[in-house]
């Protein structure tokens, strides 16, 4: 997609994305803010949060940093961020409506940060040039669900494309940063959660996409797993990695 198409997509998707983000039980924002503060990266720094959306990371960063700019290609995402900021006492947040690709390749802040920004490895040279002191990339690299894994094996389903399950891109990022002559380090954050799942939830998610033989196997599995119970427990694992380098 070009920048206009990307902006339109995120403007349309913004309400659902923000709602899902607000429901998240993962403490990655607090944990990453604490870690970057302990590393003396955030305190008294200016920060450019590229693809900052509704301010998920920018708001906690602003409690530590001198100034934080939320930059996003989607005006609707920035509108959500403004609404959130309006309900706080923070005065050190700015908003920038821009595609990151259009930013001039020169330092824009002491720290340039992005979480889940769909960067290609060869774009890390420019990303680095935007930082005065530190560049920070955060990404979910693993997401597993015990029930999903069990059903994929049982029904021989193809892997589901999941942007929160991509360890390969992070490895490519690290190699590229090293090739650029920087000495990166990384921090891993691992979370274990449980979720209660009903039979109706699983049927709505899978049944329509299964062949007749798969549906029969699935129904037998459901009858066994939900025998005399209304819910079963899914074990979920999330792993985030943060790559940091001094520029």
From TrEMBL:
Pfam family, one: Methyltransf_25
GO biological process: methylation
Superkingdom, natural source: Bacteria
CDD domains (UniProt xref): AdoMet_MTases
GO molecular function: 2-polyprenyl-6-hydroxyphenol methylase activity; 3-demethylubiquinol 3-O-methyltransferase activity
First-tier enzyme category under EC: transferase
Residue ranges constituting the Methyltransferase domain according to the UniProt record: 47-124
Keywords: Methyltransferase, Transferase
Gene3D superfamilies per record: Vaccinia Virus protein VP39
EC number: 2.1.1.222, 2.1.1.64
Name of protein: Class I SAM-dependent methyltransferase
Organism for this UniProt entry: Loigolactobacillus zhaoyuanensis
């Amino acid at each position: 997609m070009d920048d206009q198409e990307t902006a339109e997509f995120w403007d349309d998707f913004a309400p659902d994305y923000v709602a899902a983000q607000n429901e998240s039980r993962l403490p990655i924002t607090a944990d990453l803010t604490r870690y970057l503060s302990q590393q003396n990266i955030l305190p008294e720094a200016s920060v450019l949060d590229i693809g900052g959306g509704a301010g998920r990371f920018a708001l906690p960063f602003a409690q530590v940093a001198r100034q934080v700019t939320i930059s996003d290609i989607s005006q609707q995402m920035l509108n959500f961020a403004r609404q959130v900021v309006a309900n706080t006492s923070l005065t050190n947040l700015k908003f920038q409506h821009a595609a990151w690709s259009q930013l001039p390749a020169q330092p824009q802040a002491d720290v340039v940060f992005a979480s889940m920004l769909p960067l290609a490895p060869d774009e890390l040279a420019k990303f680095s040039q935007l930082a005065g002191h530190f560049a920070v990339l955060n990404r979910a690299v693993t997401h597993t669900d015990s029930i999903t894994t069990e059903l994929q094996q049982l029904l021989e389903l193809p892997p589901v494309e999941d942007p929160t399950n991509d360890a390969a891109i992070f490895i490519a990022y690290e190699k590229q940063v090293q090739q650029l002559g920087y000495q990166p380090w990384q921090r891993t954050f691992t979370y274990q959660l449980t979720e209660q799942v009903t039979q109706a939830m699983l049927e709505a998610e899978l049944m329509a996409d299964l062949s007749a033989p798969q549906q029969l196997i699935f129904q037998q599995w459901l009858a066994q797993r939900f025998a005399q119970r209304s819910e079963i427990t899914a074990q979920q694992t999330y792993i985030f990695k943060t790559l940091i380098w001094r520029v």
